[in-house]
Each structure stands twice: as structure tokens, then as C-alpha cells.
Amino acid sequence: MTNCAACLxxxxxxxxxxxxxxxxxxxxxxxxxxVLAFTSPAEATDEEVQHLRELTRQISVSGVQEKFSLxxxxxxxxxxxxxxxxxxxGQYILKTVPPTRFRNVAELPANEHFTMQLARQxxxxxxxxxxxxxxxDDSPAYLTRRFDVLPDGARLxxxxxxxxxxxxxxxxxxxxxxxxxxxEMGRLIRQHLxxxxxxxxxxxxxxTLFNYLVSNGDAHLKNFSLYRLPSGEYRLTPAYDxxxxxLHVDDGNGLALDLFAGDFxxxxxxxNAYLAYDDFLAFGQRIGLPPSxxxxxxxxxxxxxxxxxxxxxxxFLAPAMQARYAxxxxxxxxxxxxxxxxx
Length: 343
Prior knowledge:
CATH architecture of the largest domain: Orthogonal Bundle
Strand content: 5-15%
Shape: globular
Largest sheet: 5 strands, antiparallel
Distance between the termini: 44 Å
CATH class of the largest domain: Mainly Alpha
């Protein structure tokens, strides 16, 4: 392995698994091995699987993948610090390859990891720290450090947009996470973050564009959150659960949620039947951003082809999956540049 398991940069000869900066961000400088110290769910005994599932139920995190709570252990009788399963006080979330009928499920950890790194490194979106680890059978797993847990173990107050919007399964049915719009989410940001809503709306707009660019067809209400910093300030959390769903399922034409509230439709969508430049231009303005800022962000998210290709080539995705990912990016990028006005 010549690339950092987190940022994908080339490792120095003196480094193993993680570069110094990522080791510090993920593990506070501890030399944690890349191979996990417990059995992969695919290789576990029935008793071990039951134990893993009991731990899984302790984690209140949305998503279809099985997730496990981990903490960093540093015991005197161990040669090095290691990540251990825990039901309480978890500092990390581990996602394993799920036993589902989705296409290319073994690529899920690499897909989410690359998408998160793309958001952070190329498109300058704040994201949760993450890496790809391995079990001793070499199967991959996606690790992310919890941004809501402070070094002393205290947790930051956090609410996702389903909570902010008052959406529950009991009141709104099975589809409660999806029966909403990005425009309505913009209104919630203005309501809950009145002091700096322009900057936070800009971040939300950029993240919405990014989700469209990477074909993230499952960015629902529970995948966006606000949290309260130790300073008392509320803001959008770092992005999480980002991936290209088109590698695994047929994700339709656009985003998980409607872009606009109500029945609003642009002439562009009426003509093309897909979201394009004009739709996002209108969306940015409808949530309250200045037109000049909307255009700048649109131009930026539709660019960066060379940097994206370079990072993709270093990812842990298989070559065939890299090619599919690149093709999906090219298609979405073309749409983001398509305007009835010729922009």
C-alpha cells in the first residue's frame, strides 16, 4: 500500500498506512494499524455475528449499511493502540460491506471514501474524517471519526433536518425522509441560523450541487444536520454519508429530494426533463443567495476535471468502478453546464 488510507496521498518511506496529518486527525497521533483487530462479519461465527448486531443496535445512525461503534484503546499489554468494538462512548463509526442485492457491494467502502475525499480535497467542503480499513481477510470497511464527540467524550448537540422539519415515520409514513425539498431545507437554515445564514446557505448550495455532480441519489433529510459548537454557535455539520449511488442502484434522474418546493418548474426542466444549470441557478436565488454568488459556485462545482481525475486514479475503487464513476461525473458535469440561455 503506497497511498494513505485516509487522504490517498503518497506515503513517505517512514510512514505506514497513514500519513502524519491523517494519523493526527483520525487518531490524535496514535499509530493505529490499518488491519482491524476483530473478525469481519462475513467470517464471523454465529455468536460473533449476534454480538456485532447487538452493538449495531446501540448506534443511532441512519443508512442501510450495518454500522458498528468503535473506540480507540491503548492498553499497556498491547503492542500498539487499536480500534475496539463498543456499545458506549464510541468515537468512530465503521461501515462494513452489507449482505444486500445491490450491484458492486464490495466497492461501497471505497466509493464512500473517495466521494468524501473528493468533497473535501477538490471541492473544499467540510467533511467528517474518514479512511478505508481492512479486516484480516482483506475485506474493506469504511471508518469515520465522529465529529459530534469531543476529546473529553462529551457530545455536541445535533439535529438532522428530519428533526428540524418535524418529519417522523409515525406522522408522515415510510417516505418521511424524502417527502421534502431542498428549497424547504434552505428555509430551515434561514430560520435556525439567522446570524450567518448567507454563508451557511452557500455551503448548503455547494453541497447540494456536489450531491448532484457525484450522483448521490440518497442524500435525504437525515443526511444533513446542524450542531451546536462549544462556542454556542449553531451551524451545518461537516458532510457525511456521501457516495455515488449510481454504481450500486438505478438512482433515477437527480437528487433524493425535490429541488423546489411546491409545483415550481423551470423552462429548462420542462424542455429537458433533467436538472441542469438553469434549475440550480433558480434554486440558489430562491433560497436567498445573490445571483453572482450562485453563478460562481455553479462554475466551480462544474469544473476541476483534472484534480478529480487525479484523485480518482489514487482511490481504492477497482479500475472498472473508477471508469464508471468518471463517466457518471462527466454526464452530470455536462448537465451543470447546460442552459437554455447558452451559459
